Amino acid sequence: MGKFDEARLLNSVEVPAAAERVLSCTRLPFIIRGHELRGFVEKDTPEERYKEIAVWLSLDPLLAIQKNLRALRLEVKQRAELKSEADERIRDLLRITKNTITAWDEEKICTWFNTHVLACLDKTLTLAALSDKDAGYQELGKRKDVEDERFGLPILKRFIMLIEDLFKAPVEEGSNSTGKITAFENAIAVYTKAMAREAGERSKASGAVFNNIWNAAKALFENGEELLDVCPVCDMDLKFGPHGSREGVRISLETKLSDLADYRNAHNELEKAEVALPEKLRVLKHGLDTLISLLTDAGYEDKIKKIIAYRQAVEGCKRGDQVPDSTDALLELKTLHNFINAEKKRIEGHQGKFTYASALKTINDLLQIKADLERIERTKVELGKLHKQLNQQALTINKAIVEHTQNLIGKLRDEVNILYKDIQGGNGDAPPIWLKLPSEEETNKQRIQLLIDFSENRKGVVPSGYLCDSQVHTLALSLRLAAIRLFNKQARTIILDDVVTSYDADHRKNIAAMLAKHFGDFQIILATHDEQFFSLLQDHLPPSKWAFRRITRIEPGFGPNFHDHLTPDEVIQSKLDSGESAAVQIRQAEEEWLLRICRDFGTKVVIRSVERAYKYDRSELADALASFLKGIDISPPKVPGISNPFLFSLQRGSVENLNSHFSDNPSQSASIGDERARWEEFKFFRDKFTCPNCGKRRFRRPHGFTKPMCRSCQTPFNFS
Question: CB 3.0–4.6 Å: which of 175, 205, 316, 350 could bond 170 by disulfide?
Answer without folding.
Answer: 175
